[in-house]
Amino acid sequence: MPPDLTSTTWPVSTTSRIPASHHPVPLRPPSSTVCRRRISFLPFITEGHLYLQKMKLCGINALKNSMILFYFSLVGDLKEVVVHIQRDIKTVGDSMSIKMQYLQSTANDIANVVGKSLENHMQLLDGQSKAMVSLINL
Known about the structure:
By secondary structure, the chain is an all-alpha fold.
């Protein structure tokens, strides 16, 4: 029933009524044929379910394998980096060793010069002391 255009409200009773032609078909229990048909599909459904589980496991295994390969490649790259760092450390260590040997040699040379200078200075003082004693005795 269409609304009355002259009225400002449309009665709720007219909107809540659904014509009988629009009612859904009532559900009835399935017949034995339908049940047999459903049961006949169960092996296919079970087989499909097992296939999906198998494919899921295959996918998980493939993902694990790819992650393992990825980690092994990262470990390989890290090993290369470590080898380069070890070479650099050895190079720096060798260079420092050579420089330390040079510094030790220079320190030894300085010690020898200082020692010789000290001996000369002591001889000079000893000579001056003898000269003073000789002057005093005169």
